[in-house]
């Protein structure tokens, strides 16, 4: 054997040993097993290897199990591993159980897992049950019966209700219900000064409505933090209504004016039509007179007399239009009878 072979063979043995030890320590977390045994938690090597095969990180199971065991909780490895495989946060659940145990709250492991799997922070819920949380609402606009707007901001002190955390409504629902109660309370006041004098009436009215029903919280108190006077909504509505009434009246007046104009145009057309008929009738008068003279129904003297009357009427109309003095004399020429050879003068 050569020198190179003699040197390479031990190195190969060492490399294989290192790889084997690494694989063994990967599948068998020996340090974690020693920590569990030192903490008094009974966990077998086979269980740790099984966790690796089930793609469960042993650290996320053993360390919370050690905390639970030290806190005096009755939790086993299978429960924690099942919750981990379901997608839950094992460490958060154990911390919540420890906090509830220290606060003498009744919280079971199954309830804590259900709250965690529902998407809620179970540890925060336990802390909120011990230390209530204050929810501050935004400015809520409400209008009293006299039309004055009030802007109210409230602080709602709530405590988490562990029994209703699964399926219960959240903070947004509580804020919405409180806002609804504030609007109702202010709207029932006949004058906004009543609300300004006694803002505690809003708190009492809202609390008596039982707004925490169906929510994940229990409302402890509602305190009015600020009340500001806003706009005069009633006057603005009356102004808008008056403006709308004015526009309606203007529209109706415009409609009547248009109808009057149309009626005037119709009457003008009717007048022109009547004038045309008068002109047509006047054009037939000479023909009728000629026919009467021809048939002997009208004498020459009658015609002259009628012509004189017509001329006198025209003269009077001309005097009236020109404004001539009464002393002025206007001579008129007697009208000549119509010349028709077939008509003989009447004797």
Automatic annotation (TrEMBL):
Predominant subcellular localization, coarse grouping: membrane
Q: Name the Pfam families on file.
A: FloA
- What membrane topology is annotated for this entry? Multi-pass membrane protein
GO CC terms: membrane raft; plasma membrane
Give the InterPro entries listed for this entry: FloA
Which residues span the membrane?
7-25, 31-50
**Region of interest (Disordered), ranges:** 326-347
Keyword rRNA-binding attached: no
Reported function: Found in functional membrane microdomains (FMM) that may be equivalent to eukaryotic membrane rafts FMMs are highly dynamic and increase in number as cells age. Flotillins are thought to be important factors in membrane fluidity.
**How is the subunit organization of this protein annotated in UniProt?**
Homooligomerizes.
Under which name does UniProt file this protein?
Flotillin-like protein FloA
Q: What organism is the protein native to?
A: Megasphaera paucivorans
According to the entry, what is the taxonomic lineage of the organism?
Bacteria, Bacillati, Bacillota, Negativicutes, Veillonellales
Gene name tied to this protein: floA
């Amino acid at each position: 054997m050569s020198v190179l072979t003699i040197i390479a063979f031990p190195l190969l043995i060492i490399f294989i040993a290192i790889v084997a030890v690494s694989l063994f320590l990967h599948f068998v977390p020996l340090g974690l097993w020693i920590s569990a045994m030192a903490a008094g938690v009974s966990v077998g090597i086979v269980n740790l290897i099984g966790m690796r095969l089930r793609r469960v990180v042993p650290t996320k199971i053993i360390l919370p199990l050690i905390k639970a065991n030290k806190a005096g909780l009755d939790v086993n490895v299978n429960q924690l591993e099942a919750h981990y495989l379901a997608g839950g946060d094992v460490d958060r659940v154990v911390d919540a159980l420890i906090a509830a145990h220290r606060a003498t709250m009744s919280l079971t492991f199954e309830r804590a897992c259900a709250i965690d799997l529902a998407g809620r922070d179970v540890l925060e819920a336990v802390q909120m049950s011990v230390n209530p949380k204050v929810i501050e609402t935004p400015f809520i606009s409400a209008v009293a019966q006299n039309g004055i707007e009030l802007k109210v901001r409230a602080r709602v002190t709530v405590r988490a209700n562990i029994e209703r955390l699964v399926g219960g409504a959240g903070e947004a629902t509580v804020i919405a219900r409180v806002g609804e109660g504030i609007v109702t309370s202010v709207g029932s006041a006949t004058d906004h000064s009543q609300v300004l004098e006694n803002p505690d009436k809003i708190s009492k009215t809202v609390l008596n409505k039982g707004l925490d029903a169906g929510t994940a919280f229990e409302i402890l108190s509602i305190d009015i933090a600020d009340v500001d006077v806003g706009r005069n909504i009633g006057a603005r509505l009356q102004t808008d209504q008056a403006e709308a009434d004015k526009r309606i009246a203007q529209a109706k007046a415009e409609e009547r004016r248009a109808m009057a104009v149309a009626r005037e145009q119709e009457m003008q057309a009717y007048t022109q039509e009547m004038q045309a008929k008068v002109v047509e009738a006047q054009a037939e008068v000479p023909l009728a007179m000629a026919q009467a003279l021809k048939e002997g129904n009208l004498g020459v003297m009658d015609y002259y007399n009628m012509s004189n009357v017509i001329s006198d009427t025209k003269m009077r109309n001309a005097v009236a239009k020109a404004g001539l003095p009464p002393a002025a004399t206007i001579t008129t020429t007697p009208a000549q009878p119509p010349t028709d050879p077939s008509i003989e003068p009447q004797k």
